[in-house]
Amino acid sequence: MKFIGSMRKKQKGDFVKKIILFLFALLIINCIYAEPISGQILVGGLLAHYETLQEAVNAITENGISGDIEILTNDQMTFNQALHIAGLNQEGIFNITINAKPQGLNRSTFVNDSANSWESNYIFKIENSKNIKITGARFEAIASGYGNMIVMNSGCENIEIDDCVFDGADVYSSSYHSSIRINGGTTPIIRNVIIKNSVFNDNAYHIDINSSSYINNINTVSITNNSFSDAYSAISIVRCINATIRGNIINQSGSGISLTECTGSLDIGYNRVNAWGAGISLSSYTSDYYSKNVYNNIISVNGYNNYYNSYTSEAVGISLMQAT
Predict the structure, then answer these.
(1) Where exactly are the structural domains of the chain?
(2) pLDDT at position 28, please?
(3) Which of 12, 25, 143, 157 measures 20 to 30 Å from 289, CA to CA?
């Protein structure tokens, strides 16, 4: 009996040692992962560091950044979850890239079928963050009443969207359906946004940029070499400083390119616009004489509203209203 009792004590002691060793191992792992992050991070799939983009972004936000970061997503997966990027890389020393086409062939798809309010109406939302590039992604708006895909709010700086595909919900005029929506209503300002080499299909607004506080809180936007089709408005910018819109192809849009109450330099050139309402419209635009350039655009306006199957008497190729 004494032998059995001593065996039980020994087993109990061994079990306690194993628990202590396990906890110590967890502590070591935690210390390793608590270090500032750099290099490549894999998201989604069996060998991934994180299951979702939100988990990866949270880890970067919590642990800090020691060098450039490339987040590689599994290009065979569809991620059905909203991503909120807030307060990321505010120092702006390093660059963060979300690469959704790492093999150069297939794209990861991002959706958010749980959007049910203005606050949750996004697939990616970025605010108070710097030096972020999104490339190779496909966004799909499947929520019937809420179809915003990328939303940027105040404090965004050096944000680049390259080689992405935006498939909208095929709606008419609705502020709840924007492929890219940039809200500049509050400070700090949004500065240096680049949108290029991307495809936009079937949405109310493809690119909707609005500094709604009646103050120009959006500074320097470049929209180049994109393809737009089937929209109430392809490119709409309200109250922005400095805009470059070049080399875009716009088909079957109510409004092709519209700028309202903008200032600074303007470069609109080499765009092909096929619209049924207005091709290029500038309203209350002020800039230096030598910085205002609208040139070499090909505009076709037929006046036929595809949504209502009727003609409009307000079709116009180029409209200039109070532009100085």
Answers:
(1) 1-34, 39-321
(2) 47
(3) 157
